[in-house]
Each structure stands twice: as structure tokens, then as C-alpha cells.
Task: structure prediction
Amino acid sequence: MWQYEKKLQFPINIKNPNPKLASFIISQYGGPDGELAASMRYLSQRFAMKDNVTKALLTDIGTEELAHLEMVGTIVHQLTKNATTTQIENSPMAAYYINHGRGVYPASSSGEPFDAMAIASKSDPITNLVEDLAAEQKARTVYENILRVSDDPDVNRVIKYLREREIVHFQRFGEALDRVQESINCKPVKGVGIKDCF
Amino acid sequence: MNRNQMLKQLMEYDFVQYDLNLYLDTHPEDQKALKIFESVSEKAAALRKEFEAKFGPVTASQNNSVSEWRWLSAPWPWEN
Result:
């Protein structure tokens, strides 16, 4: 189960409205490499894990990703709440605004609603962990793309923090994969030429 | 310390504690990290208690008042 804490993981205080930047950053809320995908990926994959290290890691990182989802939602909210309709109309946020106003909706920057096709969850621990390593790299890349197009220091300090967390998670998932590969127990499946691993 | 300063300090302690939690997940044998975790946890718990007494609960279960539902009174994290 979970308990909500009434605080962010990292402070966010954005002064200048910027609907264009919000329309880019929403991708890390509901896009394919976003925080919603990340949390759902890890919190679903944990059920397939055999060892306590990986069960703990997926639970803990999956929970942190929910805190990051809240942070990205906070950035979008603070970038749009004082934006005028004219500012929004003349920005790439215009199409989003017609459906959602200044609300926070899980979609990518190109307008696709959140899609669970962006995540994978299998019964094979190694398959899952390799997907997780890639997912952290993809999210890091998207945060770097955001840094390339954003010149707001209030936003960038938060994006830099989130980017650093992707690197820490990648490191921890790599360590977990090493442990799983050392401890995993594989048995041949009769007549198929493959192995089942536990 | 005002609310924002104390909250920031609490966020810092909690972050150190959480990042050590992840490290300990994959290095459970690291005695030095365990000791630091213990010391940070104590500091975080003491500061959280002080913060909640002054400014209201961080989690609803710590409402700490028989006459007031304090969970509603402080600003929400996305507000600035």
C-alpha cells in the first residue's frame, strides 16, 4: 500500500508562465518515456521478481517515479496557471488547451494519450531488468532534449535533478541485474531448446 | 526557521535517507552506509515531528489535533 506525503521530492517554484515549454514537458508526465510509464512499468514488473533485492528496488524506484510524476505535473501546472489565453493560443499548447484547458492530462508532447504499449512486463526477471535499463536511458535522453529547448532556470534546475535520478536508477538496475544473473537458476524446458529461469 | 526553510531541510534529510535506501537495496552488506542511514533517519524523524507540530501533518495519519483537521490547512506541494 502507499501513503501520500504532502511535499515534493525536490522544490519547484516557477515564476514565468510558458505554455510552449509546458507542451514539451507534458511528455514526461504521460509520454512513452515519462514518469507514469516508469512507475507502472516497475510496480507491475515486481510481481515477476524472484529475489529480495529486485523486489525492493522495483518497489522503491516505482514509488519514486510516482513522486516524479507529481513533480512533472507541478511544472506543467506552474507554467500554465497564469498563462493568458492569447499566450496559449499562440503556442504549441493550443491544441491541448482545447481538450484539457490548463489541466494536467497524461499525454505525450505530440498529443498521444498515455499508452501502456510504451511499457513491458514479463515473467522473465532478466528481460524486465534489461527493459528497465533502457527505460532509464530513454528518460534521460528526453530530459536532455528538454534542457536543449528550455532557457528558464527555475525549470531547468528541476529537469537537471530528474535527469540525475535517471542515472542513479540506471546504476542501481545494473547492480540488480548483476546479482540476478549470478543467482538465477535455469532449467531446460523439455524438447523446446530453451530454459526457464527462477 | 519559517515553514519553507524547515520544509526544505526536511526534504533534504528525506532525500538522503531515500537515496541511501536505494543504495542499500543493492548493497545490503555495506555497514558504513547502514550507519549513515540510521543517523539520517533519526535526524529526519526528529525534524519531521517538529515540523508537523508547527505547520501541520505531512501525512494525514499525523493530524496531531483533537479539535482541528489540520491535513487541509497547509498549502499543497504543487502550489507556489
